[in-house]
Amino acid sequence: MDFHIYKPHYKALLHLGIPIMIGQLGMIVLSFADTLMIGHHSTEELAAASFVNNVFNLFIIFANGFSFGLTPIVGAQFGRNELHDIGRSLKNSLLTNMLLAILITAICFILYLNIHRLGQPIELISLIREYFLILTNSIIFILIFNAFKQFADGITDTKTSMYILLGGNLLNIIGNYILIYGKLGFPEMGLNGAGYSTLFSRIIMVVAFILIFFFSKRYKVYREGFFRSYINKTDFLLLNKLGWPIALQAGMETASFTFSAVMVGWLGTIPLASHQIMITISNICFMMYYGMGSAVAVRISNFNGQHDIQNVQRTANAGFHLMLCIACCLGIPILLCRNHLGSLFTDNAEVVALVAQLIIPFIVYQLGDGLQITFANALRGIADVKPVMYIAFIAYFMISIPLGYFFGFVLHLNAVGIWMALPFGLTSAGIMYYLRFLKSTKKR
Question: Domain residues for 86?
């Protein structure tokens, strides 16, 4: 490997990716704070939060995936200096995201009415219902924020989203402390307090992005394109054509974790609480990979707009090199501290012991996770998104979920067995995405 060839790509990816990773780090801190505060309030609330957050993350990741359809469009337009067209694309993206928000909200409400049918511990049902309903109200704000974020990332302005995310997450943490424990004259609301704090912070983040877009000088040229343009069928169909495959790919990946949470819930409250702690820990790596993956997609979309395939390939390779570095920097300390991490979140000795066991399969799948995030985003950057949907179905629905049931219940390995299936799904997805990327770029 020639370092001098990749050096400018490393620098460019870090320049784009670090602000995204810092923004995601804020979300990790929020997730840690949520889990810490809820876990120390009660183990039952921690278990209920585990189930709801895992189910709700399926919808959030699906929505995020759909909004990613804007990135290759804006990135290519930015690469060709078609700045007014970017404003038009954003306007159409806002419409498609709001329509999807209505659909997801309706699905969540149906799920809310039937949540007792999913086999969770009976003592958690009332906690699950209330918390789930509060979070459902935040869906439309998530999707509006996503549209603005993908627009900003596509024009290589990753810092604006970073500052808004950090501010919103800080607000959320403060709100958690006040509402969960009943400070400053507010009633003690427990898990529901965490839900209301999350809802409020998501509203504030959308308001902040709207104000920045419509009043900042930096966005003036895009704002002109936004106001001069119209909602049109061509952009609407293109956004859906790119958005749905990415959404389904992201949704199926998340579904493997969501169904894992459901299966862990069949084992009882202690495994479910341990699963929530592990998801919080795993989000450290995932969010860092996500930030670098987004940078890969943006940079590749810029080169793709210029028809520079050589730099498209080099960017993808450089992105994976950086992913490996991130995996080592994060994975090794987690492995070494595995016997103590659970105690940060709860005083329950059974939960702490199970968390230490679950960290082993978690470490195993880091390479596969970095690989699949890199090349899924590389395919997104060149707008070759339809194959990722089929690959995700094979990796997660045909490999990961069935193996989770087999290891967990047929071999009676319980929660550890369910987690053992995740490396198989993530690694197989990564290999297939990589092979598809090679095939697609050779044709160009």
Answer: 3-443
